[in-house]
Amino acid sequence: METSTIKCALYTWGANSFGQLGLKNAEDQVKPQCAEYGQEARTLRAITGGGGHSALITESGELLVCGQNHKGQLGLGHVSEVMTFQLCQLPGSRTVQQVSCGWDFTIILTDDGHVLACGSNAFGQLGISPQTQYTAQPLLITSLREPVISVAAGLRHVLAVTGSGGVYQWGTGLLSQAKRALNPQPVPAHLSSKEPCLVTGLDQEPAKCVTAGSAHCACLTVSGEVFLWGSNKHGQLCRKETFLPLPTALDRSLLNGERVSAIHSGWTHLIAQTESGRVLTWGRASYGQLGRQVTTNDSTESSLPSEVRTLHGASQIACGSEHNLAIVGNQVFSWGWNEHGMCGDGSLCDVIQPQPIPDLQNAKALLIGCGAGHSLALCCLKNSEDTGS
């Protein structure tokens, strides 16, 4: 009789100088390694990372964290590095719906629509009193008056969508660029606020979700429109201006008139998935992060959305700072910056076009996530054992 046991495992690879791979060591890994998260029997709902830390959400809504913690970004009540995944206890035993990690802070969305934040507040990115420099305890952002449905941490700024479809922004990570670009015009409040501030110019239709780069913002509306604002230094806003203070609709003709079903952002590039399953990329291309050959240094080619056919029908996409992962047909593909081995192919050479990760080719991928320079994937391996009859 043949019995097949399906074993799921969390694989991590790439930069690891703070123990963010959860492997009990601090050495970079150029190939996927099996990480323990202490609850192997339970599956995960989401995985992601920040500048030097990682976060997992279990099916039951528990938050597990590891890695860099010098600003308390792990929310564990202390500021020591953590080399293995540990449970982050939230006040009021709340359960977690979504987690988004910035450079040195973490934004936590609970199942009841509350937002908590921990880590550095040097740019007001925690959305709490600016007097607090940092916190190792997750603190509730009290000024968000209605339930939140989506959050996104950029490098040093944050976006949130409320149940009624409004978008709030806080953290001053875009302020210096905004001042330079808009001078002598005043900077809109949402770019300079250290507490949640309603983003103006999105009144036409309700927002569904948000994503953020190092100095830009993106919002996907219920009707499949994309609005972009912030820095356009790398053509990531698909416009001529160097900076857009207010949300500006992405011209749908650039996407063949299709509605967008999901939007993802690295530090300086964006990826859109359309309703028909097409995947288009644009923005900075210097490390292969667009997943396509950009022939010239002419920025017009990279600042126009262009399809990456290998990724057609991807079920999931995750962006790190300058590298990406995707699940296509149950397989994990990677591309982009690879200096720390975060593409997982065993090399340190940048990957220009999406490639399946060799060591995970026999696994079925369930979930993927990226930090700034590291990668995570939950995969199931099928072990068939012939036990005779």
TrEMBL record:
Name of the protein in question: RCC1-like domain-containing protein
The UniProt entry, under PANTHER family, shows: SECRETION-REGULATING GUANINE NUCLEOTIDE EXCHANGE FACTOR, UBIQUITIN-PROTEIN LIGASE E3A-RELATED
- Keyword rRNA-binding listed: no
Q: What is the lineage of its organism?
A: Eukaryota, Metazoa, Chordata, Craniata, Vertebrata
Q: Which SUPFAM superfamilies match?
A: RCC1/BLIP-II (SSF50985)
Q: Which organism is it from?
A: Pangasianodon hypophthalmus
GO terms under cellular component: cytoplasm
Report which superkingdom the organism of origin falls in: Eukaryota
Q: Which UniProt keywords apply?
A: Repeat
